[in-house]
Amino acid sequence: MASSSSSLSRIxxxxxxxxxxxxxxxxxxxxKISPQVSEAISSxxxxxxxxxxxxxxxxxxxxxxxxxxxxxxxxxxxxxVPATIAILNGVPxxxxxxxxxxRLASLGKSIQxxxxxxxPHVVATRAxxxxxxxxxxxxxxxxxIQVFVTGGIGGVHRHAxxxxxxxxxxxxxxxxxxxxxxxxxxxxxxxxxxxxYLETQEVYVAAYKSDEFPAFFTEKSGCKAPSRVDSPExxxxxxxxxxxxxxxxxxxxxQHSAAGNLIESATQRALTEAREQNxxxxxxxxxxxxxxxxxxxxxxLAANIALVKNxxxxxxxxxxxxSQLV
Length: 326
Ligand code: PSU
Ligand code: MN
What we know:
The chain has a single domain (about 30-250, about 305-325), classed as Indigoidine synthase domain (Indigoidine synthase fold, 3-Layer(aba) Sandwich). Helix content is about 50%, strand content about 15%. The chain contains 16 helices and eleven strands. Strands 1, 2, 3, 4, 5, 6, 7, 8, 9, 10 and 11 form an eleven-stranded mixed β-sheet that branches. The chain is globular. The mean pLDDT is about 90. Manganese (II) ion binds next to loops.
């Protein structure tokens, strides 16, 4: 009883009885920033934010832990400081140590997938939460991080005209001036509608060294990218004073895109199964990712890992170029 009433008071403190500004200050006071990330932010060094749902829900254990560690190493080797973001026992953490990463990875899907709207609940109930792109953007911007690397962002789902399922990643990008580096958008989503929605949200979208917007597992989606940029330095120069975010879409490295057709047919089958089994809402993306991995005998997981590492490389170069702009 005591714990549930204190949870309630944490929720009301965060949401109801105080102004939005005070609520944000309160939430900020709960945030724990690791010493390395804190030092890097205050000295103006390059910092790269990393999300945690990709670890808990996007990949199976132990490949998820291995990948999370390798991605952090790539960021360090390229001159930036990694800041993996998650909520642990109700505390939003910016920068995780090895033991915290291990906990997140081994908890897997039992940890709550936390989008922006879920933050107050996870904090108030002192739960563990793996942050999606929308929640990670919120915390990264709170502490002034400007670059965020992930694999793929959420988007407009197929059949959104019936389900209204549009990821809050897109609206978060629309109001958060952070550069997000992804391999585009998966074909489990409706890619043309996702690009339209990003335009509505005033998100600047550019493909890296390509005229076409990439489709995660393949370099091509059939959709022209709204713009093209050819070097990390050019990306950094795009970071003008805007209120909206930037989506930098980096195509999967060529040697891994060959499996694209196999993965696409598995995706079609997984989509049919999701409809048959009535898997909807925030359970849909994790279901499809796991099912496509099973159906392709691990090929999609290997491609996913390769593209995330490539994004970490380019994202770190952008973060370093940005930190040298001032
Ligand atoms: N797409 C992927 N891998 C992922 C996700 C999306 O290829 O791990 C995760 C990200 O955390 C993203 C979230 O922010 O799923 C979007 O979920 P939803 O579609 O429920 O908004
Ligand atoms: Mn959704």
